[in-house]
Amino acid sequence: MTRIMYLSPVVHRSGHDELFADMVRHRKRADTEVHVTCLPDSAGRFNHVEFRSYEAMVTPHILQGVRAAANEGFDACVIGCFYDTALKDAQEISGEMIVTAPCAASCDIASSLSNRFGIIVGRQKWVHQMHSTVVANGYENRLSGFYPVGLGVTDFQMDHDTTAERLMQAGRKAVEDDHAEALILGCTMEIGFNETMARALDVPVVDPATAAFLRAEHLGSNRETCGWKPSRKWSCEAPDEAEMQALGVFDVEAPFGNRIVVPAIN
Amino acid sequence: MTRIMYLSPVVHRSGHDELFADMVRHRKRADTEVHVTCLPDSAGRFNHVEFRSYEAMVTPHILQGVRAAANEGFDACVIGCFYDTALKDAQEISGEMIVTAPCAASCDIASSLSNRFGIIVGRQKWVHQMHSTVVANGYENRLSGFYPVGLGVTDFQMDHDTTAERLMQAGRKAVEDDHAEALILGCTMEIGFNETMARALDVPVVDPATAAFLRAEHLGSNRETCGWKPSRKWSCEAPDEAEMQALGVFDVEAPFGNRIVVPAIN
Amino acid sequence: MTRIMYLSPVVHRSGHDELFADMVRHRKRADTEVHVTCLPDSAGRFNHVEFRSYEAMVTPHILQGVRAAANEGFDACVIGCFYDTALKDAQEISGEMIVTAPCAASCDIASSLSNRFGIIVGRQKWVHQMHSTVVANGYENRLSGFYPVGLGVTDFQMDHDTTAERLMQAGRKAVEDDHAEALILGCTMEIGFNETMARALDVPVVDPATAAFLRAEHLGSNRETCGWKPSRKWSCEAPDEAEMQALGVFDVEAPFGNRIVVPAIN
Amino acid sequence: MTRIMYLSPVVHRSGHDELFADMVRHRKRADTEVHVTCLPDSAGRFNHVEFRSYEAMVTPHILQGVRAAANEGFDACVIGCFYDTALKDAQEISGEMIVTAPCAASCDIASSLSNRFGIIVGRQKWVHQMHSTVVANGYENRLSGFYPVGLGVTDFQMDHDTTAERLMQAGRKAVEDDHAEALILGCTMEIGFNETMARALDVPVVDPATAAFLRAEHLGSNRETCGWKPSRKWSCEAPDEAEMQALGVFDVEAPFGNRIVVPAIN
Amino acid sequence: MTRIMYLSPVVHRSGHDELFADMVRHRKRADTEVHVTCLPDSAGRFNHVEFRSYEAMVTPHILQGVRAAANEGFDACVIGCFYDTALKDAQEISGEMIVTAPCAASCDIASSLSNRFGIIVGRQKWVHQMHSTVVANGYENRLSGFYPVGLGVTDFQMDHDTTAERLMQAGRKAVEDDHAEALILGCTMEIGFNETMARALDVPVVDPATAAFLRAEHLGSNRETCGWKPSRKWSCEAPDEAEMQALGVFDVEAPFGNRIVVPAIN
Amino acid sequence: MTRIMYLSPVVHRSGHDELFADMVRHRKRADTEVHVTCLPDSAGRFNHVEFRSYEAMVTPHILQGVRAAANEGFDACVIGCFYDTALKDAQEISGEMIVTAPCAASCDIASSLSNRFGIIVGRQKWVHQMHSTVVANGYENRLSGFYPVGLGVTDFQMDHDTTAERLMQAGRKAVEDDHAEALILGCTMEIGFNETMARALDVPVVDPATAAFLRAEHLGSNRETCGWKPSRKWSCEAPDEAEMQALGVFDVEAPFGNRIVVPAIN
Fold first, then answer.
1. Which domains are seen in chain E, by residue range?
2. C81 closest CA partner among C197, C212, C220, C206
3. What is the mean pLDDT of chain D?
4. Rounded to the nearest 5°, which phi and psi values hold at C173?
5. Hey, is C170 helix, strand or coil?
6. Band of the pLDDT at A12, cuts 50, 70, 90?
7. Are A111 and B98 in contact (CB under 8 A)?
8. Within an 8 Å CB–CB cutoff, is residue C178 touching chain E?
9. Contacts of E142 in chain D (CB under 8 A)
């Protein structure tokens, strides 16, 4: 059995957690157990992290959640934001647990299906940072561009018709004008739109939450069968456990604001 | 059920096919069916493709094998050589089937486990071409280097003690001198050595045949559950089916030299 | 005397061979002998190789042709397709003979005449692969872009007025909109149009078949006078001759489908 | 008058604050006022941030400090760690105040004095992250390498003789073996060693705390005289002030653990 | 006291020298002395250096001016052209004096204020060379583009309304279409327009003469307080002084065509 | 007939001019006429240009020589220094004449014969600048490294045994340690050593003066037969002829210090 945690790095969004739990129920392998979680009230009122400074504020809580997941023995954990918020920080203290995230996962899928892809995002504000992540992950030469639709994170699930229309318009621009051969939806809250778009545009469209979850399941499963656990050498060195205990801030009670368990089916 | 073909792009190596079939039996998910194949006698006497010119000569046979797999309805196919021989050619005519290969798969795994990895290869001859593949796949900044051990493809399974010793020596050099944090074995015939090395060097060591198979299973399964099939847009456009029929060389009888079926367990 | 082979990597196009023989007659030095050839019937019905899979199918025949040219003692050989099809494969087994091709040759000329050039191609399908070749050859920063005109390889010589008009339109776009300072015609079948375009647009326009032939003559001549033959060290190592003989597929009878000899004039 | 805040992103190190205050007293212009600060007790027991996870934990406190500095009307603020910890996050919410940091500042100085420089750091652990910062800042082609001396952040000021000897050894290696033409000390706690090294090795040696302070003074002064304030356009957009207030975590009482005021001299 | 020379690499433009002297008066620190100079009559009739060949012709005179400045004991010298004409040549023989120039200085400022900037230039002719300088200085990933306005160097100060209008138009294009977050005026003769533009477009706009002067003052001052002088190691090695004397062309009488002294204040 | 000028950018070296004239006699095509020239006395006492500042001082004289060559109707001109001194400046004002130089020419040859080459130079001083040229010409990924032998330009032809021994030692290091597959001699004064080295090391060794001359002959000949003349568009725009006349410094009497004519043989 593979055990995966899907952690949304925002607070108090039980409705939204249900969106991801639903996705997981449809996509997971039978023998995978998934816990869909989000940040606790102590992380403040962040229901989106569109700003670097917002990410910075919730990052300690992400680390605490990841650390808790590692302590509970999960095989892999997803940090569910397309900024791949705090991914490298979390990987440092995840022990033997894999940590992954949507941007890395989506770019891997899109580049396995095409030579060139476009990423459809909410606002121009996001582009510079996400572009840096795409470059750091080695996909610069695959990218046709970023396509902002003028919607914030919390807008995507408001009026589904508007969202669908704007995403389609951006997708068409990417494919027709810039010769994208596949598309990535660049926000986990764009969930639910990729299949219709793929049919309409006749190119693969990657939902990032799904891609991240399936990557976690893949890498988490490999960990079990092949022993492929995170390196702890050189730049991957973790802090000394005793020092971490003494610092007293990595392990906390109640690190999650919500937890939906999607059980394995034997 | 996911159906995977593992195709070795060489001829008449039933003993070697069994090596890969064994690996598959230990690593596959229960509900995956795998066919382990190699090239037919018509492909000549190539029991290794260390040279670009040898790859060139077997490439038409690889395409015929991949095409046959697509026609048989496989979800994904592995071309089992660390040169990722003919990968882009094969992807062009694989229809809705995923095609993947060891170098791409291994780099993905190694970079999910570390920031920097080394690749242990047979001979200096291979390095330039493999380096180009690593760069093309976007992993240039991850690479500590290539480490040749002075063995050819057909030598690795001759004297296991010699092989083990040389691989270890190269691995230690990569980790200690060049600060590699993970290792990749850069030839599918280096199979069987990674677990001992990982324990001895305390870094993850990726076996490329295993990585390629598991990536095929992951992407093949995603194809089913998410509809993520190869793009056929722009540079991914396939030849016209009628033209291909008229050319008369893509579809042949008996495209495989051997076939070991590893069934799904329901 | 310098002896050059110009090999079109397609089948049965005696008319087209004549196009290239004409070009050679007008451009060669007096003391150069040129053989203009194409692939034999055994290579199938490929009269264009717009697809990677088509290139893959004719590649063994290209290698056999190049190998025959080397055995006949030619100084240099051109593989006459702007994809530079199988160039690196052929260079591996060309012994002391130089092998070159149109994309490499054209980029060298265009960058000797300008800081920035555009490449006018047939279809969008070609762009990704040709872009990779331009990048691999080190000309990425010189490139204003690729300009597809919506014609296939076999269309260019059909209706010369249509071809001329479309090439001019694309060339004007490259120069006026993207600040190209020189142009390359990105298909050997675009032969015959560059001089008119150069006059009309007042920038240098490079014909790729001509560029490849003249580069072969230059490098072939240098081989004689300076002893500059292909390296056989490290990645340039050729297979062992005995092993190649044993494999029995590199040297064949009748490797060419046509041969026009343009003699030296003493 | 220019007003600068120098903020060490660690806790309770009044002795160390005095090191930086001393440096400021010797280096500042007469009409510059400097406040040397560090993080408050509420930021925990972090007296070094050698790990990404430690940086992550103190980052919210850095943002609160930077925000306080902006509210107090400082012209510029230094985040005094060679990881340039949280620099981009802090710049987002600094309003009209400049924020800078040691790695960016040191690379600018070193590249104004030489074509190629080496960076002497504490431990191999640091190298990957710092290398990424150097690359992101555009200095990749200037870098001869990183030279770890096997000391942690808190070791540098322990035994000055040992530190001096190790830094010299690393510096000599950079200059003699790797042809560095200038050196950067890659930790603010390496303060006090650069002048002796410069004399002994006859190359410029940059102290990062000094470089960061002088850059802050330069940019802070330019802000006054030329109006060159941070852009708030596109990726530089700050969160809405009302939303920040509602979130309630950016502005706190007592954001600093210590404050040494170095006054302007009129 | 810091002493700075601002050298315009053109001839006989006392009116223009006054423009830069005015700027210096408004921007300099109290205790900085500045000499604003230009080339002597012996340098010919060059009142602009828009061409590489013009730069080449005045370069010996620039070196003579820089050498004279070094001999007079200046702390730093600006070569006042946005091509950063002869910067590396001059740095080689500047002894202990800093040499800097507008493009390097402006890019540093713009990247301290934003993630992405555009450069507004006179003519398309300039773009390729200036782009090379921006790339060589490590700012390639910061650049939104170059924006030519169709004016030559000597046109900018002719009709201020026309200039202002064209610069604004180009600036708006950079910001609105290409998402520039800051702007650089790419010619020292564009002086006087940046403040109005900054207000109108609400992004920072960098005047290059000012940026170069302030960078010289910053680096010249650091030289005094920190001993940060140019490296003379490896590629920074200067010619032997005796050999230079023997060559007899580096040190000349009357190296300047004009000299306005802006004195330090008490 | 093709007419080539070979211009050494130094003064008064008739003996050395003879070295190049000899090379030309052995390498040129029958119907090529070559003038071997150097700078006039008015260019000063520069018998080497190892320093950027020395290059700067002779550059106006190079331009005058190139301009004279263009006016005399030469097809192509070589600037005979491995720094490719003033190449881009000279290309701007060469009218319809081709200008080329040794580094560009040698890299082209070496990369046509191998995948990876090393460059053997005189002193470490040269490396940074030559590396920049190699990168600018697109050969960065081909380069195994630079190998200084501790000799200045004027030393190479002093004691041939010492020179031969040092070049061989450096060449062996490049090939054996760094896997170079071909070598370039990185100074035109290293003339006369490449053939022995090639035999001893069994890799191609490129003499840069020869490579530059043969490239000039190739491009000069193409100019005649194909009309491939320098672009004068965008960044290749030349100054206005009337303005150049008015400036009065481009066209001078007696631009050459020596002239050896190697006639065509009809």
1. 2-101+210-262 (3.40.50.12500), 103-208 (3.40.50.12500)
2. C212
3. 97
4. -60, -45
5. helix
6. confident
7. no
8. no
9. 138
Closest residue of chain C to A144, computed from CA coordinates: C128
The number of CA neighbours under 13 Å toward the Cβ of B265 is 5
**CB–CB contact B226 A210 (8 Å):** yes
Summarize pLDDT for C178-231 with one digit per residue, the tens. Answer: 999 999 999 999 999 999 999 999 999 999 999 999 999 999 999 999 999 999
Backbone torsions φ then ψ of A156, nearest 5 degrees: -60, -35
Cβ burial, residue F63 (10 Å; 0-12/13-18/19+): buried
Q: How many CB pairs under 8 A join A and C?
A: 4
The per-residue pLDDT for F241 is 96
The partner residue sitting opposite A181, judged by closest CB among B98, B221, B234, is: B234
Q: What is the pLDDT of residue F15?
A: 84
Report whether E201 contacts E171 (CB < 8 A).
Answer: yes
B127 to chain F: nearest residue by CA?
Answer: F179
Dihedral of CA atoms C13, C15, C19, C25 in degrees, nearest 10, equals 110
- Residue C22 is which amino acid? D
Residue type, C97: M
Contacts of A87 in chain D (CB under 8 A): none
Q: Are C7 and C38 in contact (CB under 8 A)?
A: yes
**DSSP letters spanning A160-225:** HHHHHHHHHHHHHHHHHHH--SEEEESSGGGTT-HHHHHHHHTS-EE-HHHHHHHHHHHHHHHHHH
DSSP label at C186? S
Q: Which chain B residues have a beta carbon less than 8 Å from that of A109? A: 219, 222, 228
Which residues does chain C have within 8 Å of residue F111's beta carbon, measured at their own beta carbons? 138
Interface of C with F in 44-83 (CB under 8 A): none
Q: D247–A92: do the CB atoms touch at under 8 Å?
A: no
Q: What is the pLDDT of residue E266?
A: 67
| Cβ neighbours of C153 (radius 10 Å) | 20
* Phi-psi region at F150: left, alpha or beta (left = phi > 0; alpha = psi -120 to 50): left
Measured between alpha carbons, how far is residue C55 from residues B193, B234, C46, C122 in Å?
A: 37, 18, 9, 16
Q: Which of B113, B226, B235 sits opposite A27 (nearest CB)?
A: B226
Chains near A with 3+ CB pairs less than 8 A apart are B, C, D, E
| Cβ contact E238:E232 at 8 Å | yes
Q: Is the pLDDT of residue E12 over 90?
A: no
The overall average pLDDT reported for chain A is: 97
**ipTM higher than threshold 0.90:** yes
Interface test with E, best of A123, A125, A128 (most E CBs within 10 A): A128
Residues 6+ apart with CB under 8 A from D177: none
* CB atoms inside a 10 Å sphere around CB E115: 25
Closest by Cα among B258, B195, B237 to B93: B237
DSSP B117-178: EEEEES-GGGHHHHHHHHHHTT-GGGEEEEEE-S--GGGTTT-HHHHHHHHHHHHHIIIIIH
Ramachandran sector of residue C44 (left: φ over 0; alpha: ψ -120 to 50; beta: rest):
left
Residues of D in contact with B179 (CB under 8 A): 124, 127
Per-residue pLDDT of chain D in tens (266 residues, 90 and over written 9)? 999 999 999 997 768 999 999 999 999 999 999 999 999 999 999 999 999 999 999 999 999 999 999 999 999 999 999 999 999 999 999 999 999 999 999 999 999 999 999 999 999 999 999 999 999 999 999 999 999 999 999 999 999 999 999 999 999 999 999 999 999 999 999 999 999 999 999 999 999 999 999 999 999 999 999 999 999 999 999 999 999 999 999 999 999 999 999 999 96
Q: SS3 sequence, A135-154? A: HHCCCHHHEEEEEECCCCHH
